User: Fold this.
Amino acid sequence: MSNGYCNVQHGGYRTRAECEWPYACWITGSGRYACLAWCRVLTVTLWGSREDALAAKEFIDRTACGGGCHRDHRIVDLNWPHRKFVREGGVL
Assistant:
């Protein structure tokens, strides 16, 4: 699975996320949908379903992702050749 930005064939969504965001403070999970929190430092959680990723984003939108949170949270579908941001009604 190539991310469209490099020539590596990634073995899974976790390795693709590590290639996409090498500067992330941490990456956890193994699913297709990435919930990104760009506040203070970048953190990434991977979810197996779009619904689970959206629920995680909605939770941190309501409660904050940590100190310095300014509500810059996004969902990315890692199955697309180039990053696609996801919203509740579909792909942006």
About this structure: Strands lie at 26-29, 33-37, 43-47, 73-77, 84-87, 90-91.
